[in-house]
Amino acid sequence: RFCILLATTVLSKCAGFSFRTSNSCTHRRMPALHHHRSSSTTNEDEAIKELMKTHDPILLFVSRLLDADTARDASALYAWCRRLDEITDDPSSDVATIQQRLSDWERRFDMICRNEPVDDMDRALAMYIQRNDDLELSPFVDMISGMKEDTVQNRTISNMAELDEYAYQVAGTVGLMLLPLLKANVEQSRDAAIALGKAIQLINILRDASPDVALGRVYLPQDMLKAEGVSTEDVLQLKSSPEYRKVVAAVADHAEALLMEAEMGKSTLPGVGPLFVQIIVELYREYLIKLEQIGYDNLNLSGERVKIKTIQKLMASFKATTKVLTRQ
Questions:
Q1: Averaged pLDDT, 235-254
Q2: What backbone phi and psi angles, to 5 degrees, belong to 18?
Q3: CA-to-CA distance for 131 and 118, rounded, in angstroms?
Q4: Beta-bridge mates of residue 217
Q5: Which residue, among 173, 170, 250, has the nearest Cα to 206 in the 3D structure?
Q6: What are phi and psi of 305, to 5 degrees?
Q7: Euclidean distance between CA atoms 241 and 248, whole angstroms
Q8: pTM of the predicted model over 0.70
Q9: How far is the CA of 60 from the CAs of 45, 68, 71, 108, 135, in angstroms?
Q10: Residue 102 contacts residue 148 (beta carbons within 8 Å)
Q11: How far is CA 275 from CA 89, 102, 182, 196, in A?
Q12: How far apart are CA 1 and CA 85, in angstroms?
């Protein structure tokens, strides 16, 4: 699926969610870590760039706006989140194996919190945590909890409230993790950061409907599908009826509302922050436009995700820059 972090009890009151917490990492005080750059850093950075290029080219595109130190810290966060995502979505592993690997990843995060990193990428995250005294760690734990929710066969979501919570866990958390990088005021920027992460996740769910079906996952709210007479089996069989597309459109509208909330909150960020947010908003808004153009038919037999062209990305970036410069 990128904004710090407050204690879970505060988040649950302010954002309206009941987040899960566990382990020693939610409340921090880490021992000192020697700021040593490994000789493998260049290879590590290149590996992370390849991950972005393969899975999240928009983030790679936007990361080029950041200075070197900020980009390095953002890459450390990205690598941790991406590797966690790959554990969850490993097609070669059964459910029990994935669940065990997630438990191992949670213990590995505990080791990062104790400044006992396993590899250079873990060390990069430990150094990022060390450098940011205001960084709370509950969103890392919340993200793992969200990933655990995916380790079931025939994954479904009951309603929009559950979808919102899941979107927070696997993506809104990333927004919170990034706030220290942007030197943001925590209180002022928290809600917009969560909204942006959730919007990105909802749009990616709509883009990835066909690949998710191949994994036995249907993320559209079951109550909304049933209200339109659409069964889970219909979706798994890639039946894109007018009723199904109506539900897709409703979730797309919710995602647009979240993009607007993030857009309104961008002024709380210093420096390049507003531009960073506006570019992401405009790029992901293009996916919503694309979905509307194809009649919200996001199921296809080829199993491909919904895509936009490079020229659309460039135009969206230009539009974002214009909005920020003219203070729209």
A1: 97
A2: -105, 95
A3: 19
A4: 155
A5: 250
A6: -85, 160
A7: 11
A8: yes
A9: 12, 13, 10, 26, 23
A10: yes
A11: 32, 35, 11, 13
A12: 9
